[in-house]
Please model this.
Amino acid sequence: MSLKPASRDFGNLVAGLQAQELQAPSPDPVSILSAASRYAAILLDANERVDAAQFPDLWKTWNARALDYARHLSWHHYPYTAIIVPGEGPEAAQTSLSALGTFRLMMAVESFNRGLAPFIIVTGGAVHPAQTHYVEAEEMRRMLIDRFGMAETNVVMEPFARHTTTNLRNASRILEKMEAPSHTPALIVTDPAQSTYIESPVFSERNLRELKCEPGTLGKRLSAFSITFYPGRKCNATDPNDPLDP
Model:
């Protein structure tokens, strides 16, 4: 959270919420949890953590053309359902996309141009640096279209992930929504360091600790930059305990 719990401002905010609640009429027993929900919404807003409420029309605008294309696609023409590219936040707040993020896109476009998959899924939220207003997936999508000349029908944006764990979990959800064949793998394309991390026991342990499940199963490694990925279904339901899970 961006607010400091011991600060005067935070104390005044909580005291104000409590005073408001005490002065309100007695709540209906049916809506007894409404106060808690209201508190949570106000605190998320105060901490600039309303990410899950952004892009409400994601599939009606940003991803609409790709979704329509997927519904009429002959998936068997491609060895992989999609190329998944995790985001990488820049070090400077005024920079929209990091050099490493751009490099990952270059590798992904190269794989796409070889006809390996019909889509590139760019995944990443407003994560790094702290308090950034740039959404990694949004900036990557813009670069794929404006700089690399890709069509909107082939680019899918996932703007909510906050770590490599949720990059893969959310990409798995997207492939399910697009009705991609579950027996055909996707391809994770990224820099060698992250690719190695994805294969590590440390990453697997973090998935189980934070997501309580594995977002999928890794398959054959094609190069230092790419590894196959079979999305799972166990992590595809929204986590009610995570306020940043849309």
About this structure: The chain has a mean pLDDT of 92. The beta strands are 83-86, 120-123, 155-158, 186-189, 216-221, 226-231.
